Amino acid sequence: MPVEFIGAIRTKPVSELNNVQTFLNENIIDQDYIRELTLAHEKGGFDRVLVAYRASNPDSFLVASYAASISERLGFLIAHRPGFVAPTLAARIAATLDHFTNGRIAVHIITGGYDADQQRDGDWLDHDDRYRRTDEYLEIVRRIWTSDIPFDYEGKFYRVKDAFSAIKPLQKPHIPLYFGGASDPAVQIAAKHSNVYAMWGEPIAAIKERIAKVRAALPEGRSISFSVSVRPILGVTKEQAWEKAYNILAQIQKLRQAASVSSTPSQAVGSHRLVDFAQKSEIYDKCLWTPIVAVTDGAGNTTALVGTPEEVAEALIDYYDAGVTTLLIRGFDLVEDAIAYGREIIPLVRKEVARRERQAVTVRN
């Protein structure tokens, strides 16, 4: 299968290399930066960019709408947390934006790994109930997108009567759904509803196990694709790449110490898994590096692939061989790294995947 590359955009220059309060200061939306970052990904050959969600961040649908207006080809993976708008309304918003972007959006469902961030938006459900609500939410969203007639629905969290939308997604049968979450309830709901199951950068053996687990949970007749998220750190030589990696680690440690930051451990199972891997080893496989996970207590996508472009491309191909067809890669300087990935990594991986596809066709014939 072809490989899909996803990057990430934010509304101002910020990463783990900035002061932790940077994103909370004024001028949180820098339109020039969004433009520069969006076009860097489009010119670099990325298929999509992730627009993240947090309770204190600018709205992800509106950010994607603006970025789409200044690009021509690039797609947008819009992170969306169920439970804060009605599923019927969310379905109409997404379907409308799908038309205005000429079918360039996908929705990334994140049910939530921090109680504190949920509570900022008034959500007091526990972990498992959040996933039960997500199940109902996606059931309604998918029916709104596809049903030609009004329908009723009654569940524990949602009840609708004669629900219907005249606006349907431009993409058929509906807008692609990506899904994040490593817990058992997450796996079951992802297998039931999503098109792509998203994982953070774990060792290859663990990724294979998780792929097998999700496939085992699929209802009969359903298929699903898989995504892995990593942070490539590149150097002209292997030695330069590792020097850069340790400089990034030292800068993150220094900033967090200066700000007296003590991370609140995530309640997300995926974060716990990353922390466990980091405690067991600093390096896995060819060049999967975990110390930033340990420093940040598993906050989000923090495992790195460290090496030359050729070494990192080989490591990404290993994920492809394991069954992963979507690769989410973002750096610590989003613009410069997106440019570097588009120039040095994406062409290498696409070339190797195309070679393997041609080889497979030859073997079949």
TrEMBL record:
Report whether Transmembrane shows up as a keyword of the record.
no
Extract the GO molecular function terms from the UniProt entry: alkanesulfonate monooxygenase activity
Q: Which GO terms describe its biological process?
A: alkanesulfonate catabolic process
Please give the superkingdom of this protein's source: Bacteria
Looking up InterPro entries in the UniProt record yields: Luciferase-like_dom, Luciferase-like_sf, SsuD_RutA_monooxygenase
Q: Which CDD domains does the record associate with it?
A: Alkanesulfonate_monoxygenase (cd01094)
Sorted keywords for this record are: Flavoprotein, FMN, Monooxygenase, Oxidoreductase
**Coiled-coil ranges per the record?**
none
Tell me which residues make up the Luciferase-like domain.
29-325
Query: What name does the UniProt record give this protein?
Result: Alkanesulfonate monooxygenase
Biological source species: Nostoc minutum NIES-26
